[in-house]
């Protein structure tokens, strides 16, 4: 009987080893797939950021070509002029 138990133990160990190896291979495959997916998405985001930067630069260039002044006047220009007039009067 001891020989039979020894063989069962060896077989169980071998089965467990194969199971663990298969499990590790599956995990490695899944992690590789996830890693590839993440890298692809990061690359896509990088491309989108580059496109946004180019669009912003194009808009800046258009605004510069038009030469339109800022829609808001400088904050203290009007009030300083009024104070100078009041003080000199």
Automatic annotation (TrEMBL):
Q: Per the UniProt record, which residue ranges are transmembrane?
A: none
- Any Pfam family from its record, for instance, is HSBP1
Region (Disordered), start-end ranges: 57-89
Q: Which PANTHER family match?
A: HEAT SHOCK FACTOR BINDING PROTEIN 1 (PTHR19424:SF0)
Similarity-based family: Belongs to the HSBP1 family.
Name of the protein:
Heat shock factor-binding protein 1-like
From the broadest rank down, the organism's phylogenetic lineage runs:
Eukaryota, Viridiplantae, Streptophyta, Embryophyta, Tracheophyta
